[in-house]
């Protein structure tokens, strides 16, 4: 059964890419059926909250679709977030060359070099998340934790540096399916969105480090380790990162395809070329074979959540419920844009705290609200949704980031999200709100 599930994901991803470029006869219906099959196959594998929320969104969506008389376009609704599944499946391949070129070891040496000062180490860890996180995604947390284990750092320090460093990249990294989901639903091109998002991401990084300067005064610090590292490897990572962005924009310009597809193809091409540069094609193929078998275990939750949330949001947007949501948001926008931005971020975070995954809230808002109706530019609306997603990631007990931290640090939600990062969350929500509002006033 595991083999069937694994192959179904790959067949779906390849079929969608093929249909995107060659417009196969009955392609949309075929891909729609394949999407439904993948959802049903993976639903049986899920456990706990992920299974409950995904099943609920799927079956409520089906009931609403038939009762509202919109069943004839079911394949369009179920495929809304399909491009993101392709991204989830293919983009992790870009991390293969990092291990093949032993970049991870040099990253570890670079971070440890600043272990004599808690503030410098905090900055080096959060800075490394900013560099590596967009490429390796959540794998960055495990990678950095493995590299730092011998230092036996305080759990509070690790919880703060990992969570704040990782979340600094969510709102701007094109490797994250959440960002491309929002841009896809709001219909904003990446090149228009990215400058403002990077500014907010850098502000997040700055606030994280400034706040830690005050917090570090209460920490005892006796760790000193200064290993040698090669700066060339870090420079190569920066060059690769820049090449990726360049390749994405070139593909988008040449073929005029969805940004999600451009990112996917760029990741594949760059990972192959990078492996050839390292003279490690055999190692690349070996890792790919291993990953092909593990893809289902690594991505099953995300795949089903994205597909069912996209379907649910699409169906709801065509009902009176969608009109009600739109009316509420428009009323807030007419009252105050500042209040609107703050309300969306806070509301999403509060729902996430009680267990409602932000993908549900964000999908509902993105599919039912038109930015121009509320008096703001689509870029500002997209940035607001992404900052809401980021804040929700910090305070949600069910996000993958927090689940990983619970396991790594053997601490619960109360310690990691509330006790050690609660004040930071309140501060960063205020920073998000004010910075987005200033961008709205000055540039948009």
TrEMBL record:
Organism: Halalkalibacter wakoensis JCM 9140
Name of the protein in its database record: Uncharacterized protein
Transmembrane annotation, as ranges: 30-46, 52-71, 78-101, 121-144, 165-186, 192-213, 234-251, 257-277, 298-316, 328-352, 359-383, 389-409, 421-443
Domain of life: Bacteria
Keywords: Membrane, Transmembrane, Transmembrane helix
């Amino acid at each position: 059964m595991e083999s069937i599930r694994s192959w179904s994901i790959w067949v779906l991803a390849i079929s969608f890419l093929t249909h995107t470029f060659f417009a196969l006869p009955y392609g949309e219906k075929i891909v729609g059926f394949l999407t439904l099959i993948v959802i049903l196959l993976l639903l049986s594998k899920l456990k706990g909250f992920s299974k409950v929320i995904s099943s609920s969104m799927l079956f409520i969506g089906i009931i609403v679709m038939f009762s509202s008389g919109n069943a004839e376009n079911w394949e369009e609704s179920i495929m809304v977030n399909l491009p993101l599944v392709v991204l989830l499946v293919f983009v992790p391949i870009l991390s293969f060359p990092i291990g093949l070129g032993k970049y991870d070891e040099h990253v570890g040496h670079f971070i440890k070099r600043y272990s004599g000062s808690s503030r410098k180490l905090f900055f080096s860890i959060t800075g490394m998340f900013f560099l590596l996180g967009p490429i390796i995604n959540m794998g960055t947390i495990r990678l950095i934790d493995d590299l730092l284990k011998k230092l036996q750092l305080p759990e509070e320090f690790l919880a703060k540096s990992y969570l704040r460093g990782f979340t600094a990249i969510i709102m701007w990294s094109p490797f994250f399916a959440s960002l491309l989901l929002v841009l896809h639903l709001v219909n904003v091109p990446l090149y228009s969105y990215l400058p403002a998002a990077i500014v907010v991401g850098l502000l997040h990084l700055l606030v994280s480090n400034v706040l830690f300067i005050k917090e570090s005064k209460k920490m005892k610090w006796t760790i000193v380790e200064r290993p040698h590292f090669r700066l060339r490897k870090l420079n190569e990572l920066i060059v690769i990162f820049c090449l990726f962005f360049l390749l994405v924009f070139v593909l988008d310009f040449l073929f005029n395809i969805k940004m999600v597809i451009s990112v996917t193809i760029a990741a594949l091409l760059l990972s192959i070329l990078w492996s050839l540069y390292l003279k490690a094609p055999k190692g690349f193929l070996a890792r790919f074979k291993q990953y092909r078998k593990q893809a289902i275990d690594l991505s099953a939750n995300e795949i089903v959540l994205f597909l069912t949330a996209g379907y649910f949001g699409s169906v709801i947007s065509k009902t009176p419920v969608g009109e009600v949501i739109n009316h509420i948001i428009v009323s807030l926008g007419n009252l105050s844009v500042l209040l609107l931005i703050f309300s969306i971020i806070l509301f999403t975070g509060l729902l996430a705290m009680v267990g409602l995954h932000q993908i549900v809230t964000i999908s509902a808002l993105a599919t039912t609200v038109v930015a121009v109706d509320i008096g703001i530019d689509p870029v500002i609306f997209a940035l607001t949704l992404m900052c809401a997603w980021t804040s929700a990631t910090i305070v949600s007990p069910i996000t993958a980031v927090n689940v990983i931290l619970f396991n790594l640090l053997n601490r619960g939600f109360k310690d990691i999200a509330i006790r050690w990062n609660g004040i930071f969350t309140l501060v960063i929500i205020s920073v998000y709100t004010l910075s987005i509002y200033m961008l709205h006033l000055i540039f948009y």
